[in-house]
Every structure is written in C-alpha cells, then in structure tokens.
Amino acid sequence: AGDSVNLRVKCENQEARVRGGITDISCEYTGRPESCQEYHSNPKGFWKQVARALKKLQGRLCGDERALVRTGMCK
C-alpha cells in the first residue's frame, strides 16, 4: 500500500573536524507513510512528528542502526 519514502540524513561532526577523524557520515531511512491510516487524514502532522523524532535522535542518527524514526500517530 503506497510507495516507499527514502530520507537521506547527512551528519557532520564539528569536533572531529578540529581533532581529526571522521567528520561526515550519512545514512538512509525508508518508510511507507501511505500505509498509515492517520497519515491520510493529517499528512502535515505526520511530517511534524517525523521532524520531532529526528530531533530526539540527534547524535544517534546514522551511528546506531537500532535508532528508528517513529511517529505517535502510526504505530
């Protein structure tokens, strides 16, 4: 039901830039928002929740493969 949405995230480590080391990492999250009933009634609210989830995961994005981007409206 619905197409996949791919979200690419690029993280930049400012401290590593000063100290040396890996400065940039990137990863990709894939989801199917169309498969969520609530997405259809409030897509703007869905993306707002995605943005909040990404903010909560700052520092773990791309570094922890168990870090999932979840929304409260689609469980």
TrEMBL record:
Record's keyword terms, sorted: Disulfide bond, Growth factor binding, Secreted, Signal
Subcellular locations according to the entry: Secreted
One GO cellular component term: extracellular region
Secretion signal, residue range per the UniProt entry: none
Domain of life, per lineage: Eukaryota
A Gene Ontology BP annotation from the UniProt entry: cell-cell signaling
Family membership noted in the UniProt record: Belongs to the fibroblast growth factor-binding protein family.
Gene: FGFBP1
NADP is among the record's keywords: no
Keyword Manganese: no
Protein name according to UniProt: Fibroblast growth factor binding protein 1
Any one GO MF annotation of this record: growth factor binding
InterPro entries xref list: FGF1-bd
